[in-house]
Amino acid sequence: MRLPITRYAINEILIMLLITAVIGYFLYQVASALLIFPVIVFLFTLYFFRDPYRVIPAGDNLIVAPADGRVIEISEVIENTFIKEPSIKIAIFLSLFNVHINRAPCDGKIVMLEYRKGDFWVASKPEASGLNERNSIGLISPIAGKILVRQIAGIIAQRIVCNLNLNEAIKKGMPIGMIKFGSRTEVFIPRNKVENLGIKLNDKVKGGETILGVIKQ
Domain 62-215, what fold? Predict the structure, then answer.
C-alpha cells in the first residue's frame, strides 16, 4: 500500500523530524508532557503533505480542477501570456488545510514553462494573481487547444514545485507539482472551447477529481 505522502515533501519531513527530535529531547528534560507540542507540529507537517488517492473522471472533453480548495474567481479575461484570446479564468484558493498537490487539468503536451519572481500577497486577494511569485504552465490539449495553469505563491508559501519538462506528455489528473504552505492555483481555458461550467463561486473542489467544465467537441 502506498504511503499517502507526496514525494515533494522528503526534505521538509526529514528536517521536521530532526527538529522534533532535538526540541522533544530538551522539552522532555523539563516535563514529558511538553513533548506533545513538537509531536503535533510534526504530525501537521505529515498532514499538510498528504497525497490522497483520487478517482479521475473519464472523458477526453473534461477539464478537472488543478488543485484542492475553494473557487474564488470565475471570470472572462484576455489571457495575454499564452492563450492570447478571450478565456475563462478559474481561480482556486488553497488554505493550509487543503491538499496542496497540483494536478493536470486535462491531457496534453507541455509547450511553455515560465517562472516569475514576485511579491507574497495573501493568495485569496485579487492582487495575488498579478503580483505574486508564480509559475505558468502552458499545454496543448488535443480537444481544448491551449490551456494555461498558473501556480501562485501566497503570503506563507515560499516554494513553488513543478516537476514538468518541455515537450512532456501529461495525463488528466496526474500530479504536476505543488505550492508549499498556502497558495492559489488558476486555470485558463479558451472561451470558445467551453461548452459549460460545472462549478460556481465558493464551491469546494478536489484536484484531479472535480469537473470544472466540459469542452466542445
Answer: Glucose Permease (Domain IIA) (2.70.70)
